What does this fold into?
Amino acid sequence: MKLSTRRIPIVVPGYRFAGVRCGLKESGKRDVAVIASDVPATAAAAFTTNRVKAAPVRVGIEHAAAGRLQAIVVNSGNANAYTGPRGLKLAREMCAIVGRELKIDPQQVLPSSTGRIAVQLPLARIRRGVRDACRTISRDGFHDALDAIMTTDAFPKFAVEPLVIDGCDVTVAGMAKGAGMIAPQMVVAPSGKLERHATLLAYILTDAAASPATLKRVLNVAMTQSFNTIVVDGDTSTNDTVVLLANGVAGNSKLTPRSADFAAFCAAVCRVMTALSRLVVKDGEGATKLIDIHVRGARNVADAERVADTIARSPLCKAAFYGGDPYAGRLVCAIGYSGARFAPERLDIYLEDLAIVKRGVEVVGRAERRAGKIMERDEITLTVDLHAGRAVAHRVCSDLTVDYVRFNSDYRT
Amino acid sequence: MKLSTRRIPIVVPGYRFAGVRCGLKESGKRDVAVIASDVPATAAAAFTTNRVKAAPVRVGIEHAAAGRLQAIVVNSGNANAYTGPRGLKLAREMCAIVGRELKIDPQQVLPSSTGRIAVQLPLARIRRGVRDACRTISRDGFHDALDAIMTTDAFPKFAVEPLVIDGCDVTVAGMAKGAGMIAPQMVVAPSGKLERHATLLAYILTDAAASPATLKRVLNVAMTQSFNTIVVDGDTSTNDTVVLLANGVAGNSKLTPRSADFAAFCAAVCRVMTALSRLVVKDGEGATKLIDIHVRGARNVADAERVADTIARSPLCKAAFYGGDPYAGRLVCAIGYSGARFAPERLDIYLEDLAIVKRGVEVVGRAERRAGKIMERDEITLTVDLHAGRAVAHRVCSDLTVDYVRFNSDYRT
It folds into this structure.
């Protein structure tokens, strides 16, 4: 989908941003970003569960472990993944340069990279890029930084939510990149439970004050409702990273799960991350449609997720969405091989509010014509009711298109 | 791939075949097949594990349970899947018509259907078609029957192996159909262990004499080496069925696992099924390449299969095969998220005999140019060595192409 996301000026109190060019991208576009807080911020982060973790992910896990970060340094055009000890050394050096230039603890800098896997970064360029970024950092550099983290993205992804906590004005703002290699499998570091997430980099920044444990809880909830629901192609990247920073300059008394405003803060972070995650699906490589898949009536959550994931990953279902064909057969087949337990003769499937399968029987005739109309929309809600219990799940996926294949067979992403 | 499989005349002693038209296909091509043995045959069969089992699969499981079958009746153009009690009744009626026309026990007739899901078969047409097939059945109708079981197949798939058992001439011949909805998950009925298989119908016929337990063992081995290794798109059908019949008219003393010729018989069945399974991948919807994925050095077989399956299903890897891009990054990424345990720095990957990743480092330069040449071939062998143990796995997949998506978004298969 071609979306023109209107750029609005975004300022997050206490944060500065930069995005510069150092020649990592053939296009000559911005490729190094730095985001820095004026003071050390409370931090929570989530990383890919891919066994091949990119060098910056390995360093990021270390640096985020203490729950305090002051800066993020990102390069695009090269993933610094599968680059051995040399890549690891360079990821640490990127943090060291930021530390030296901005006079902060390099252990409180989190590195990220995105782009081609298994290629060494050109040393001189990346060093110059990181230094230049630090020297041009400014309050209004949000969009420069966002430009610099993009790779195959067709449009920039950002979201912002204002709220009042404890009588203080607070901003929650986020930026994300990601379009392909999207099949979230992330864990909130250092020891959190498995979360699903996208081949994306996402940085959520707020000037609220919150404890590390609070931020971690918020990130877990927000990922479950946002990035944990999305699938573009089903490939889980080596570099997925989501960071939530809270620098406290808003002046509220430190948020904890018992604070009166905890729920409001959590909801604002969820809204920002949900907005970003849907933009990633809309910008899915070659995507023409976004499909919300709601499963209900499952025996348990695992079964509900099996059904939703199977549809979200089925090449045949995704190609049918692309073609706009409201053919229930492929959906029924995918639900059938998902591994979930249900009685086929009790299954209901809805496109928006229209039943296309009712008690196990496909509804044809007038319904099919209306279903065809619904399938032409660029956002479609599909609801599957298994009538086997009370558990639910939600996934958001894109369609599988000719352009997805063309793009990924032509171009090394 | 466009293959012109030269049709050779195939006769299997003691079997007759028919393929007729009854108007189930818009193209007007043959759509009903009957295969019948002159005498009741020993039988083993494997069926889809999809929870939504087509009506003929449900009837087939019942009829194959006793290990004796005399005929197979197939229609194409309609899967008779997700068609409720009416579909089930019709599947039984197809068997009854064959029983009446050919004077055999309807419980010894196995029905199969393939085509669109969730549409009722037109009663009058299918009744007439089955009757006509029975009345035109002949010794040399093999290719007519094969034509009648095809749907989106671009070419007919058959294989034949002669062998001598116990001094008697024996024939093993097989026919198969299948191009899309291919991601095998089958179980050998009635109680066998899980086998992987394809959205295909395959019928393997021999005039050898063998006990039901022997046939079941042979089918299990052969599926592990053939259909259990293939993936086209990753969607597991509602209708997958493989049947192995042995009518004993060759006159050999009944084969058991202790027979001198057991291994030779088993090998012949494996060769026929392997040949058929590779033809299914070559005819994969839109496919331009067949990739043999060999994984070795895994901690255990489950890990080896995880790695092979993940590559065989990865949209990004499959699109790279289509594009002919010998880019190791996507392979490394897929191996990384497969769930298998291994040390990334010990990984080797080969294209044919050419190392593209050696001890965790991508080999570039001259190797990349030769790799590019290899990627232009229409059959490619990829070997992954995890160096984590001794277990191995083998999968055979097709590439993901623009034509796959175009075909499956244009056409209801």
User: Anything to note?
Assistant: DSSP finds eleven helices and 17 strands in chain B. Chain B touches chain A through 65 residues (CB under 8 Å). Residues 190-198 of chain B have pLDDT under 50 and may be disordered. Residues 198 and 369 of chain B are 35 Å apart (CA to CA).
